[in-house]
Amino acid sequence: MRARIRGYAVLLYGGLTMVLFFLVSLPVMIVTGSGDFPIWLARFAWAPSALWVAGTRVEERDRPNLPDGPLIFASNHESALDIWVLLSIVPRSIRFVAKQELFRIPIFGTYMRLGGHIPVDRGHHARAVASLRRAGEAVRGGISLIVFPEGTRSLDGRVQPFKKGPFVVAMEAGVPVVPVAISGTGLITPKKVIAVTPGTARVAFGEPVDPRTFPDKNALLTEVRRRVIALHRTMGGAGGDETRAIAAAGVEGAGA
């Protein structure tokens, strides 16, 4: 019962503060034409406060030295909390590549669009490809991305097969991919349940992977996923099946 009450409290807090931060950020975004200010607010105010309400402590492993310039952070996805967790610790002004459905949510969707986040319509191949091209242009322009290559949250805590889309972006943009593993958030708030149990979210960053050293997107995907699984296991996570790295054929994309 307490977990459900906290779950609704987190949901309410997240929604109300999203509206507040949107209203605060909107004039700045309109004047500057940039989403950097709302990302700054999210990193230093929204995400930490929401995690506090959720009773979630973030424990980060030693972070490798990251090169200057844009990066693509490729993370497994256990819980809706993962977005707040990564916003609070990723050392960049970042944007998300996320499923189109999130951009249809009132206020939140407008915030995402104005902030420069990139929607992917996973139900339509041509639009999905166009979205990935826009993501590549954003990265080449200096923007770092956070992607969840599984495409959705894991039901069992294991790292699922990855979609190819984010790695197409990495190959075309020629920027390093940083493997990221998150462990513990699936226990704090499971998928399809509005309930939050206080706990610890563990995060580990791997060494950046240079896409220029791989022959194609499949080889890059396989190596990044292998590293995510290895990092996941070092934090007590279940890892994943390394024999099936690539998600079944279908519309490409990366969704939160």
Query: What is the strand arrangement across the widest sheet?
Result: 1-7-6-2-5-3-4
Overall outline:
globular
Write the CATH architecture name.
3-Layer(aba) Sandwich
Average pLDDT across residues? 90
Estimate the helix proportion, in percent.
Answer: 40-55%
- Uncertain segments of ≥5 residues (pLDDT<50)? 251-256
Q: How many β-strand runs?
A: 7
What is the fold-level CATH name, i.e. the topology? Glycerol-3-phosphate (1)-acyltransferase
EC number: 2.3.1.51
Pfam families: Acyltransferase (PF01553)
Pathway: Lipid metabolism; Phospholipid metabolism; CDP-diacylglycerol biosynthesis; CDP-diacylglycerol from sn-glycerol 3-phosphate: step 2/3
Organism: Anaeromyxobacter oryzae
Q: Would you summarize the structure shown here?
A:
The chain has 256 residues and is α/β, with parallel strands linked by helices. Helices cover 43% and strands 14% of the residues.
Describe the structure.
The chain has 256 residues and is of the alpha/beta class. It has one domain (2-234): 3-Layer(aba) Sandwich (Glycerol-3-phosphate (1)-acyltransferase), CATH 3.40.1130. Helix content is 43%, strand content 14%. It contains 8 helices and 7 strands, in the order H-H-E-E-H-E-H-E-H-E-H-E-H-E-H. It has helices spanning 2-32, 36-53, 82-89, 108-114, 125-140, 165-173, 185-188, 217-234; strands spanning 56-60, 72-75, 94-99, 118-120, 144-147, 177-183, 199-205. Strands 1-7-6-2-5-3-4 form a 7-stranded mixed sheet, with helices on both faces. Helix 4 links the parallel strand 3 (94-99) and strand 4 (118-120). The longest helix is centred in the first third of the chain and has 31 residues, at 2-32. It is globular. The two termini are 27 Å apart. Residues 71-185 form the Phospholipid/glycerol acyltransferase domain.
